[in-house]
Amino acid sequence: MPQNRVVSREEWLVARRALVEKEKAETRLRDEIAASRAALPWVKVEKDYVFETPDGPKSLAGLFAGRSQLIVYHFMLGPGWEAGCLGCSFIADHLDGTLPHLNNHDVTLFAVSRAPLAEIERYKTRMGWKFPWVSSGGSDFNFDYHVSFTSEELAGEDVFYNFEKLPSSKAMDELPGLSAFYRNEKGEVFHTYSTYARGPETLLGTYMILDLAPLGRNEDGPMGWMRRHDEYEAKPSAGCCGSVA
């Protein structure tokens, strides 16, 4: 049960005004971080990656669809998985409505997974999503951007994830992330940004709304309450990510 004090309107206003100052500071800090992110140096992508798409094989440059900016969501769906990661599926529920706005602001968004395209299409159809989603299964893309790990890496002491060493005991063959790229007029592609772990949480409009609700996120751990959107009336899933439906 909530333990919030019940006070007069006047006392509530005092507390609310104090919180406004913290919210303004948060907004200013967010703007400062966004400016620092935009000022990061870039890395030219030299490797030729090929992706399996509904329109045939495409290079990384081909995914831009004529725009100069590309956002890739690294969706946890490995080869042979019965369903996509719960957390990634939660994020994916927020993407379709953004597409017209992003596309008209010179940004293309794709989800990328190592699963074969047929498995991606099957799960995408089940969930009713429209956003572009392609397979990187025939390339090193996921491994190079540190969201997929070989059995040899997982058998070792640690893997490289979220810009640091992560104990292998806390890793799995697929982990979430988001990467951004820029394509210039010459067709050269540059890696500009990546974020991992809870970094892509900024895509979650549902969480932003819950943060405004009286009980907040009301969870024991990140996404612990959440299910795929077609499973809320069914028996809860047996696991968080990957190989179980």
Task: Tell me what you see in this structure.
- The protein is of the alpha+beta class and 245 residues long.
- The protein has a domain at 43-203: Glutaredoxin (3-Layer(aba) Sandwich).
- It contains 7 helices and 10 strands.
- The chain has helices spanning 9-38, 86-92, 99-103, 117-127, 141-144, 151-155, 205-210, and strands at 43-44, 50-53, 56-59, 69-74, 107-113, 133-135, 158-161, 164-167, 177-183, 189-196.
- The chain has a 6-stranded mixed beta sheet.
- β7 (158-161) and β8 form a beta hairpin.
- The longest helix has 30 residues, at 9-38.
- The chain is globular and about 65 Å long.
- The relative contact order is 0.16.
Short description:
With 245 residues, the protein is an alpha+beta fold. The chain has a domain at 43-203: Glutaredoxin, CATH 3.40.30.10. It contains 7 helices and 10 strands.
SSE layout and pairing:
Layout: H1 9-38, E1 43-44, E2 50-53, E3 56-59, E4 69-74, H2 86-92, H3 99-103, E5 107-113, H4 117-127, E6 133-135, H5 141-144, H6 151-155, E7 158-161, E8 164-167, E9 177-183, E10 189-196, H7 205-210
Parallel strand pairs: 4-5, 5-6
Antiparallel strand pairs: 1-10, 2-3, 4-9, 7-8, 9-10
CATH architecture classification name of one domain: 3-Layer(aba) Sandwich
Query: How large is the radius of gyration?
Result: 20 Å
How does the helix and strand content classify structurally? alpha+beta
What is the CATH homologous superfamily assignment of one domain?
A: Glutaredoxin
* Largest sheet report: 6 strands, mixed
Low-confidence stretches: none
H/I helix tally = 7
The helical percent reads 25-40%
Do you know the CATH topology of one domain? Answer: Glutaredoxin
The CATH C-level name of one domain is: Alpha Beta
Oligomer: single chain
Dominant shape: globular
| Helix/strand order | HEEEEHHEHEHHEEEEH
